[in-house]
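We emphasize that the prediction below concerns an isolated chain of 620 residues; any contacts that depend on oligomerization or on bound cofactors are therefore not represented. The input was used exactly as deposited, without trimming of termini.
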Amino acid sequence: MALLQISEPGMSPEPHQRRLAIGIDLGTTHSLVAAVRSGVAEVLNDELGRPLLPSVVRYLNDRSIEVGHVAWECASEDPRNTIVSVKRYMGRGLADATRHPSPYEFVDAPGMVRLKTVLGERSPVEVSAEILKVLRSRAESALGGELVGAVITVPAYFDDAQRQATKDAARLAGLEVLRLLNEPTAAAIAYGLDHGAEGIYAVYDLGGGTFDVSILRLTRGVFEVMATGGDTALGGDDFDRRLAEYFIEENRLGELTPEDLRRVLKASRLAKEALSSHSHTTIDVMLAGRALSTPVSAIQFRGLTEDLLARTLDAARRALRDAGLAVADVAGVVLVGGATRMPQVYEAVSALFDKPALIDLDPDKVVALGAAIQADLLAGNRTADSGDWLLLDVIPLSLGLETMGGLVEKIVARNSTIPVAQAQEFTTFKEGQTAMALHVLQGERELASDCRSLARFELRGIPPMAAGAARIRVTFQVDADGLLSVTAREQSQGVEASIAVKPSYGLSDDEIARMLQESFGSAQVDMQARALRERQVEADRLLAATQVALDADGDLLTPDERTVVLDLMRQVRVKSVGNDPSAIERSVTALAQGTEAFAAMRMDRAVQQALSGRRLDEIG
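Result of the prediction step, given as a token string:
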């Protein structure tokens, strides 16, 4: 935390007046949390100084859960219980989840698929909540207080089901969602406020599992999204898969076990990352005790993924057309997302927009930084120099109703600025009709069967009239998070029905309440698991430091003294693989106390070496 904050006279807030809010980039491959401290947005690191948290969750037989780096290391050994890239399954059904080979065993459920683990079935909402819990804990530790809420970013092309799933995951993690913010818009906030940019900008966001492109107009104090496009099923993971398919084909491998498939995908990701800075690399995998190594060049990689890159460029061209703009109208293009580190992406995007793409903010961090700035303002931490600015976002896909014949009548057009309210009048189809069923849809297709179903509800109490005589006004309202409510009102009698659209993707309010109750019930277990892990980390650190000291100055110890230290280290290793935090702490304390004399001898040697060959007057 900042120890000193200098303010203009009369402008310094009291400590209790500053409310702690965070911005979270819940990514497919990695997730981050950021906050504004002393007027500057910064990403919050973990205890080892790492800003990125791998979006990986592992469920274990002992009912414990691992998240992040530890889970990622076990992805190949325990692929069915280690969930990677869960964001791809948010709000998605079985058909979407099984589009690509994966090591998971899926369970079909209404609207959103579930995954089988050793701890039972888990929805993508529950898996995502585990990632958010870790980020929340990291933020509370770094900021030293209770959070009032978070701005969580989502791909611009996330539909209503995916957005609602993200909010439910936050609820399970104990986070108050101040706002869902489109990822490209968050990047624009970070660039616009940090650089004072004005004009029309394109934001090209290629993450691990999703792709978005947005066209924004930035003027002083106003961020207006003019058009957006993209693909929620296209990202860096797909580039990994192309390398994996190439490896499998080159080695003439048949169907792989889940463990081997995860090993190949993991090695392919490493090869992709290596090709971002090297012209050649190898895909190295150990399969069935046999080491396989397949060389691949950057040129080959470009050829394997050329069509994937072309799909992103086509979406960018469509977004420009939707905004009614030419390439020459765009002042700059911003790259966002770790996958934009691939050289071919930078070159292709720069060529499309006829200007070098902007990469002066870390593409991995820029979204979280923008979300933190928005969160700080929504929390009420406005300062004299923060200025007044307005954020005008848009909905990615049209919203409408099913009409007779299975057709779609669009009420709110895509790229409409939110928040928005639109209304349209409908009438009855049959003589004496006293009720009307309303089917709410999202999509651009003309047939209801080709669009995504969001909700169904009924308006009853319509006065019996001739067919076509009744006037039913249906109003669609989309809030700042991009979430929808629909109201139907019969005009003559005033009867009304409404629904807050919460997509039926498999989590009801009762289920959310149950999962929250379960999380409360397991709080003690979670605390014990955290205490154990903290002691294990402390033990690992002390062991490493002691070993470095022995390697450097072990000659200071007699053989008996060295034996004592080694025995204390062995005790720490034995205890640290157990499940007793107190035992680990005792062994760590014993090692620390047992090496105090050794540490003093090392200090004496360091002082002697520093003073060696120097005169007394020089030291003075």
